[in-house]
Amino acid sequence: MTALFDLDNPTPATRRDPSTPAWVIAFETRTGATATLAGGRAIPRPCSSCRAWTLTGYDAPLIADTATVDPYAATPLQEAAALILAVATYQLWGTPGRYHLTPRHLPGLRILGHHPPATHVTVVIAHTCRPPLATQPLPALRPSPRYDGPPPF
Fold first, then answer.
1. pLDDT category, 113, cuts 50, 70, 90?
2. What string of DSSP letters covers 5-29?
3. How many domains does the chain contain in total?
C-alpha cells in the first residue's frame, strides 16, 4: 500500500533571507509578484488572470501605484475611447528595457497639469483582461547616440 503523503521526507519550506523586510514579504505574499518593481521600471510580465503579456511598473517615483498596461501604443482616438470607458491611460517613456510610466488619466482622480497630445508621445492604456483597445506596436526607440569626440571642457 502506498501512502498519499510522505511524512518521513516533508517538502522543505521556502526559506527567505532573514534580512528581508516584513513589508517585502507581505507584498510578495499578497500580490504574487516580486518586489523587483522598486526600481521604477515597467517590466514585461504575463497577466496573472488572462496570461496576456503586459508591462507592469510603478506610475510615479513617490506615492506610486502599480500600473499594468497593454504593450501597445494608443492613438488619440483610442485614448479618447479609454477615457469614455473609464480606463486609465499612461505615458510610456524611456527605451526598451528601461520603460517608465507616468499617469495621464486615472478614473476618479483629477490630474493637475497639462499633458502633451498623444500624437507627440507614446500613450498606453491600462490592461483590462479583455482585447486591448490599442493594437499598434510600441515604437522601437533607440538610445541617443554616444558622443565619441573630444571632451567639451
1. low
2. S-SSSPPPPPPPPTTS-HHHHHHHH
3. 1
Query: Which of 66, 64, 65, 68 is CA-nearest to residue 55?
Result: 68
Question: Is residue 37 a part of any domain in this protein?
Answer: yes
The answer to whether the CB of 135 falls within 8 A of the CB of 78 is no
The pLDDT of 83-103, averaged and rounded, is: 87
Of 63, 62, 81, nearest to 126 by C-alpha is 81
Q: What is the pTM of this model?
A: 0.66
Supply the range of the domain harboring residue 130. Answer: 24-137
What DSSP string runs through 82-135? Answer: HHHTT--EEEEES-TTSBEEEEEEBTTBPPPS----TTTSEEEEB--SSS-S--
